[in-house]
Structure of Sensor protein:
Amino acid sequence: MYMADALEGDAAAINQAGSLRMQAYRLALTATQGDDERLTERLQRLDDTLTSPALLLTVRRHPNSPLPERYATIVSHWAYTMRPQLADQPRDLARYLSELDAFTQELDGFVRSLQEASERKLGVIRVLQVGTLFIIVLIAFLLINRLHNNLATPLRALTAMARQIGRGNFSSRVEVAGDTELSLLARTLNQMSQELAELYAEMEQKVSDKTAELQRSNTSLQLLFNGAQMLYSQPQDPGQMMGQLLSKVQEALGSGPVSLCLNRPGEAGSHTAISSLDMLPPYYCDLPQCAACPAQANQGLLANGNRLISFAMRSGASELGTLRVEHPADQALQPWQEQLMLTLADLFAASLSLAGQGEQQARMALMEERAVIARELHDSLAQALSAQKLQLARLKRLAARGADSETLSATAGEIEQGLNAAYRQLRELLTTFRIKVNAPGLKPALHATVEEFSSNSGLDIHFSYQLDHCPLTPNEEIHCLQVVREALSNVLKHARASQCWLSLYQDRKGMIHVQIEDNGIGIGDSVSPSGHYGLTILRERAEGLHGEVSIDPREAGGTRVWLRFAPDYRRIPLRQESV
């Protein structure tokens, strides 16, 4: 800026100095023309130009150059030699013209010196510009290098670290020296990466633990499901099925051998012991000496250092057996292992209990069936044979007394008639006891019965069944079938009917209605004649269903047998809660 300021006015000074030559020649021309007024004016103008501020300032700005001396020479030459030739009278134009070339040369030397001084300043300015440009480039290089080292490189490292974090790699770290914003950001990212790594490791561990737990739960549930399916597919012999499950239980637990001991309720000791290794009693078992079992003494410790952990199988107050697992004595079963063993013990106990109940029910059903057969034989065939036995004793007494042949023949006829009636009752009982419901449900059995009676008698039977939605028990189905067969048998034997209507339906209150109607001769009363038990059997069947049966004349002629009862699924016992 100083050098540029030093050049200020040099161009104007050069112009002014150049104009002095033109003005000097113009004065000579004006003097030749003889125009004094214009000559005076132009003399003053040259004086003003020669002492102009631009020339004076330029001369003072270059004190160490030839400019001050040359300017002083020009001023002296003009003031003392040339100006007086034109300003004084008389004018000496010839001398003026003779001095004009020397004056012009002095002006040219002054202009040349002024130009050289300006060029020197321009050279200095050029050197300064080059040096300044070099300094600027150097500063820019240093700045860029510093920015690269302190900004671009850390930012690139931070960006790479951010990408690694985005990919799930938390092992990379960035170190930025100093106490700048980037170093703070680097420390923050390092801390965040470390915390994320710890968090991910913890989450992966939790996921791994949860996956293992879910796999164990899935294995346990699969084992329980397969066990329940296997046990309930063959409920008659659950002990064998349980033994087959023990190896899978051991595999699911990941523990030592699993064993099973089965008891009989109310009896001391076990009757069956099975191990998961070979389906044989465990090596420590000495049946039937159950009192010496390690599970009963020394807290279940075995000679090999393991401990027997027992899980009782109970059904109510009955002890059905024990499920045991051999486990290291210094370790406890994990909660899921203990829960699995408890659940299996309950499942085995339920299976054994159901098997026992099934056996008891079969036993009771057999006893009940025998009681029914005995009652039927006693109420029908036994009484009829007993009566014929009395008739035979009477025949013997009459023969011993010598009764006439007519009396003996009448008594023999009564005995024969009674035997025939007893034989019919026997056939009816055999038919009744052979009734089976082979197809699922009552409807197929009734269809078969209708076809049987229609084909054998020619009776036109109209059948209406509206109980497809009603689940009847096997006992209810058997009683309904027997009532229908007994009623149809009575229609064939006594009604002399051509048509019969059989309908089964349920009313809105849930009562089951079984109606058998015919267009026969009707019935006088509902009391069975002597030696006939059909109506009595119908009433007994109705009582067995906790219902009632009515035998009434039909309005359009004939007889109607009407059975009404509430099915078991509608007889829900309601128990009032005690306060």
